[in-house]
Design a protein that fits this description.
The protein has helices at residues 7-37, 42-69, 72-90, 99-128, 134-184, 202-215, 217-239, 243-246, 254-273, 277-280, 284-304, 310-338, 344-369, 378-405. By secondary structure, it is mostly helical. The chain has two domains: 7-184, Growth Hormone, Chain: A; 202-405, Up-down Bundle (Growth Hormone, Chain: A). Helix 4 packs across helix 13. The longest helix is centred in the middle third of the chain and has 51 residues, at 134-184.
C-alpha cells in the first residue's frame, strides 16, 4: 500500500465528516426546539424521530438503483446541495406557528435525500480510491466519524447557545454546501467498467439487484450476517442505558462512562485496523473472528461485574468497540471491492434497508424476554453473537465446498 494521504481520500473524509457534524447539529437544534415549544406533546418528537426511519425503509432501495444507473459523483453533490437548501429554508420557520409541521417535513426530506446519498457515497469510494487503499480509507473515515460522534453533541450545545437555533440551522446549511464543494474537486483515479444501462423501471432494477445478490453466495451470506448482527446490536443498545440501574449504588453514571469507553474502543480499533484492513478485506474468517470478539466481550461483563471494580467493568465495552469497529470496516471494504460495479449501489441499499428493519425487531424482541435491570442479560447478547459467529464459520465451509463442486 502506498504511503501518504491522497487528494481524493482527504476530500471524501472532510466531506463525510462535515456532513456528519451537520446532521448532529440539525438533530440537536430541532429536538431542542420541539421540546421547548411542545413540552406537553411528546407525540411531536416521536413523529420527528420516526419519520426518518420510515422514509429510509421505503426509499433506500430506490436510492441504490439511482446510484447504479447514474453519475455517482453528481448525485452526491446534488443531494448535499439539497440538504443544505432544506436546512436554509427550515431556519426561517423556527419560532413560527407552523414550526412542528415544517420541522417534521424537513426531517423527512433530509431522510429522503440521505436514502439516495448514502448508498451512492459508499459506492463512489470504488471510483475514487485505489482498491489497495479502500480499507485504510474506511478505517480513518470511521475514526473521524467516532470522534465527531463524541464531540458533536457537546459542540452543538455551545453552538445553539451562542448563535441560537436559527443560526445553528444556517450553520448546518453551510456544512452541506461545503461537502458539495469538496466533492466537486474529486477526480476518478481508477478505470471503471462501462455501466450496464438500467431498465428504466425501478422495481425491475431492484429485482435485478436482489437476483445478483442471491447469485453471489458469499456476499449474500454477509448481508444476512450483518442483518442478524444488527438484531443482537439492538439488544445491546437497549440494555446499555440500563447499566445505570444495573450498577445503582455501586457506580455513578456508568452508562455515560460505558458509552465513552465504547467510542474510545471504536477510535482505537479504527486506527489499529487501518494498518491491516487492506490485507484483511478479502478474509471473511478474520471478519467473523472480530465479530466473535464482540460476543466474548459481552459474555465477560456479567463475569466481571461481581468484582465491583469500575475500571474492570468498563473494559468489555472498550473491547466491544474495538471488535465491532474492526468487523464493520472489514465488511464495508470487502463489499466495496468484491461486488460488481453495476450492482454496488443496490447491494449497499439492501444492506442499509435490512439493517433498519432488524434494529426495531431486535429492540422489541429483547424488551419482551430480557431483564433489562440485570447485568446477566448481556450474556444473552454475547452468547447469541458467539453462536452466530460459530454458525457463520460452518456456513462458510459449506459455501466454500459448494464453490469447489461447482
Amino acid at each position: 500500500m502506498e504511503k501518504g494521504i491522497k487528494k481524493n481520500e482527504a476530500l471524501l473524509w472532510l466531506g463525510s465528516w462535515t456532513s456528519r457534524f451537520g446532521n448532529i447539529v440539525f438533530d440537536y437544534a430541532n429536538s431542542i426546539s420541539i421540546v421547548s415549544f411542545f413540552a406537553g406533546k411528546p407525540i411531536v418528537l416521536a413523529l420527528y424521530q420516526s419519520s426518518e426511519t420510515i422514509i429510509q425503509i421505503i426509499f433506500n432501495l430506490v436510492g441504490g438503483v439511482k446510484a447504479d444507473n447514474g453519475n455517482r459523483k453528481r448525485l452526491v453533490i446534488i443531494t448535499d446541495i439539497l440538504a443544505g437548501l432544506i436546512c436554509f429554508v427550515l431556519s426561517f420557520f423556527i419560532n413560527s406557528g407552523r414550526m412542528a409541521m415544517v420541522v417534521i417535513a424537513a426531517n423527512a426530506l433530509l431522510a429522503l435525500v440521505y436514502a439516495f446519498n448514502s448508498p451512492t457515497y459508499k459506492s463512489l469510494v470504488r471510483e475514487m480510491i485505489y482498491k489497495d487503499r479502500i480499507g485504510f480509507y474506511n478505517s480513518i473515515a470511521h475514526a473521524g466519524s467516532e470522534i465527531i460522534g463524541i464531540t458533536g453533541p457537546i459542540l452543538s450545545v455551545g453552538l445553539v447557545a451562542v448563535i441560537g437555533t436559527r443560526g445553528a440551522l444556517l450553520f448546518d446549511a453551510v456544512t452541506f454546501f461545503v461537502s458539495a464543494l469538496l466533492e466537486c474537486c474529486l477526480v476518478r483515479v481508477v478505470e471503471t467498467p462501462s455501466k450496464v444501462k438500467g431498465s428504466q423501471n425501478v422495481i425491475t432494477d431492484i429485482i435485478e439487484g436482489i437476483k445478483y445478490l442471491l447469485s453471489e453466495r458469499q456476499i449474500f451470506f454477509l448481508v444476512i450476517l450483518s442483518a442478524l448482527v444488527n438484531f443482537f446490536l439492538a439488544g445491546y443498545n437497549l440494555l446499555l442505558p440500563y447499566t445505570d440501574v444495573m450498577y445503582k449504588g455501586i457506580f455513578d453514571n456508568f452508562y455515560s462512562k460505558a458509552l465513552a469507553m465504547e467510542a474510545a474502543g471504536g477510535i482505537l480499533g479504527s486506527l489499529v485496523i487501518s494498518k491491516a484492513a487492506d490485507r484483511f478485506k478479502d478474509n471473511v474468517y478474520i471478519m467473523i473472528l472480530f465479530l466473535s470478539g464482540t460476543g466474548i466481550a459481552m459474555l465477560a461483563e456479567p463475569i466481571i461485574a461481581p468484582l465491583q471494580n469500575m475500571y474492570l467493568c468498563l473494559i468489555p465495552f472498550a473491547l466491544f468497540g474495538i471488535a465491532l469497529t474492526s468487523f464493520n470496516i472489514i465488511l464495508m471494504s470487502h463489499v466495496q471491492v468484491s461486488v460488481d460495479e453495476n450492482f454496488l449501489g443496490r447491494v449497499f441499499s439492501i444492506i442499509f434497508t435490512v439493517a433498519v428493519l432488524f434494529m426495531p425487531v431486535g429492540s422489541f424482541s429483547f424488551s419482551s424476554f430480557v431483564d433489562a435491570k440485570s447485568v446477566g442479560s448481556f450474556a444473552i447478547v454475547g452468547g447469541g453473537i458467539v453462536i452466530l459467529s460459530l454458525f457463520s464459520l460452518i456456513m462458510l465451509k459449506v459455501i466454500g465446498s459448494r464453490k469447489c463442486s461447482d
